[in-house]
Amino acid sequence: MTRTAKPTRRAWLAGAAATATCSGLSWQTVAAAAQPVKPKSVAAVLTAYEHGLHADVLIGKILEGWKQDGGPGPALKLASMYVEQFTDRDMARPMAEKYGVPIFSTIEQAVTVGSDHIPVDGVISIGEHGTYPSNSKAQHLYPRRRFFEEITDTFSKYDKVVPIFNDKHLGPVWSDAKWMYDRAKQMNVPFMAGSSMTVGYREPEIEVPIGCDIEAAVGIGYSGLDIYGSHALEFFQCHVERRKSAERGVKWVQCLQGEAMWKVLDDGIIRQNVFDTALAQVSHEAGDVRRTKDSTLFLFQYADGLLGAVFMLPGFARGTSIALKLKGQNQVLGTRFDERTEPRHPHFAWLLKGIERMVHTGRATYPVERTLLTSGILDTALTSRVQHQQKLMTPELAIRYQPVDYPHAPDPELNSRPDR
Taking the model in full, what pTM does it have? Predict the structure, then answer.
């Protein structure tokens, strides 16, 4: 939920109630935010657990509170862990010992907590970090599909389904991403995935109403194309999905580098003022952006004709942003993901808040199709890059979904009820 000023608590509750009504949930008692809720149990399936890794800033908040300081936390309790790689900086074993959480040697054992049934209410799968190979497209081959397959195989074996959250993008290759999505649909698994950037703080706040007309949009990203391209694309998508008649998917994707990526600006295919506004939102190096080594453009066209453009500027930009030109407005809107580090990377607290709500309600807090679409865009862009920057048609990305008006930090309040 983007906005020009922080809404009052009453205003947010009214909006939340309207959203809940549309999604079929009861929000009649949403104002009773501080009332205690019985915690739901979750199993964690992890590649690695070290200080500062995603396992730490998500699972650590279940164990030690939203700020990881022993204070209030989510209405979740950690029942078990599966950890694939133990490093010399491992936190899983000491945290397990401290909080009495068993670590199991298989995913099935973690999901069943070593029993002959599934006692947990949800599973958090974090296939991120650790030592894994990369493919020819420079994608880190984290075992997200394998984790998901073993989790859902356990569901089938014990004839019970519970919600699953998959950290970051699906796949990472498209065939795996689509397989995960299709299996979730087939088995009626409540399924969420994606980046913490979609629910983190933004600076400045901008108003992008659902149903608006977006004439142009440009995103800025940084760091590695695979590891941070997923974040940049999801941050971009969570804004443009709010446009009129969205979302119906993407028709084609192209990855451009060198002179070709800047030619789209020179030729007016991408509006220079929209790019300039997006770049101005993030800190960056001085000098000519066009001299930046390894700059890359993810260019793609949506089914309704909107052109998507995400400029990855490693070594030049130091943040993630978007600029939007809305029909009827002279000013180009721009905002960035405000990547705060204290207390303990708070954007992950708001990501965990969304997960908490799914586990308690049994319904995805926002559509997994957003992550499926951005996973497909990213995989196709990286394919285009190794195929001499070809434009690739993407009939498989005709992905339809209805966005929801879910807020971002500092809303919803972390102590609000997750079961409404």
Answer: 0.91
Same domain, 322 and 262: yes
| Statement to judge: residues 138 and 207 lie in one domain | no
Mean pLDDT of 141-164: 98
Are residues 216 and 333 located together in one domain of the fold?
A: yes
Residue 127 sits in the same domain as residue 226: no
Q: What is the pLDDT of residues 100-115, one digit of tens each?
A: 999 999 999 999 999 9
Evaluate whether residue 4 is within a structural domain. no
The three state secondary structure string of the chain is CCCCCCCCHHHHHHHHHHHHHHCCCCCCCCCCCCCCCCCEEEEEEECCCECCCHHHHHHHHHHHCCCCCCCCCCCEEEEEEEECCCCCCECHHHHHHHHCCCEECCHHHHHHCCCCCCCCCEEEEECCCCCCCECCCCCECCCHHHHHHHHHHHHHHHCCCCCEEEEECCCCCHHHHHHHHHHHHHHCCCEEEECHHHCCCEECCCCCCCCECEEEEEEEECCCCCCCHHHHHHHHHHHHCCECCCCCCEEEEEEEECHHHHHHHHCCCCCHHHHHHHHHCCCECCCCHHHCCCCEEEEEEECCCCEEEEEECCCCECCCEEEEEECCCCCCEEEEECCCCCCCCCHHHHHHHHHHHHHHHCCCCCCHHHHHHHHHHHHHHHHHHHCCCCCEECHHHCCCCCCCCCCCCCCCCCCCCCCC
Residue-number span of the structural domain to which 135 is assigned: 9-198+346-366
In a domain, 299, yes or no: yes
For 232-268, the pLDDT digits (tens) are 999 999 999 999 989 999 999 999 999 999 999 999 9
